[in-house]
């Protein structure tokens, strides 16, 4: 018997897998046509979304979740994005789930620290 994860469980698994660099698990959570909009760019479809997560994953140290709120198919996760190139960035992530998969992701944070860190790194 298979059980469908709740939106909250999907979000928890997504962040745990991303932090661990487990992109195959992340792939299994995303809808094929996932739509991502964030402070550093946009992605349409699973391959673009995974590409963006992998890119940021190269400097990701930790995702320090402060709070998670779920309401039906909507989940907001408030966390500090900790990287090797910038001070922790307070971040809000909203996800919408359809048919048991993450279909839409919106992320907002002040990207100036990360952008400066990337600039120094290159």
TrEMBL record:
**Entry-linked Pfam families:** SnoaL_2
Q: What are the SnoaL-like domain coordinates in residue numbering?
A: 12-105
- According to UniProt, the name of this protein is Nuclear transport factor 2 family protein
């Amino acid at each position: 018997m298979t059980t469908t994860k709740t939106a909250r469980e999907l979000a928890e698994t997504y962040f745990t897998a991303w932090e661990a660099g487990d992109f195959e698990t992340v792939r299994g959570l995303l809808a094929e046509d996932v739509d991502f909009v964030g402070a550093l760019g946009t992605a349409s479809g699973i391959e673009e979304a995974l590409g963006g997560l992998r890119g940021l994953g190269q400097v990701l140290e930790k995702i320090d979740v402060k709070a998670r709120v779920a309401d039906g198919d909507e989940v907001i996760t408030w966390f500090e994005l900790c990287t090797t190139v910038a001070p922790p960035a307070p971040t809000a992530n909203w996800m919408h789930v359809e048919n048991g998969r993450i279909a839409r992701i919106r992320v907002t944070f002040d990207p100036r620290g990360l952008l400066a860190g990337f600039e120094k790194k290159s």
